[in-house]
Design brief:
Low-confidence stretches: none
Radius of gyration: 26 Å
Strand content: under 5%
Largest sheet: none
Mean pLDDT: 80
Number of strands: 0
Order of helices and strands: HH
């Protein structure tokens, strides 16, 4: 943006500077986030029991476990 550009300070200039597809970007981020959450849930459901067993074995070896 140039300092001497009169359109840069007008409402038309601000509207031109705003991205018309910002709503589309938001929707894409929401879909991407939902897909990542679904993948994480799927992976945890597949290996969740193994993770719990590993955690219990580590806790069992700690000196302060009762």
């Amino acid at each position: 943006m140039k300092e001497n550009d009169p359109q840069a300070c007008s409402a038309d200039g601000l509207a031109a500077a705003a991205r018309p597809d910002s709503g589309q970007d938001l929707a894409e981020y929401a879909i991407l986030t939902a897909l990542i959450v679904l993948v994480v849930i799927g992976v945890l459901s597949l290996v969740g029991d193994q993770i719990a067993a590993f955690y219990e074995s580590v806790v069992g070896v700690l000196p302060f476990s009762g």
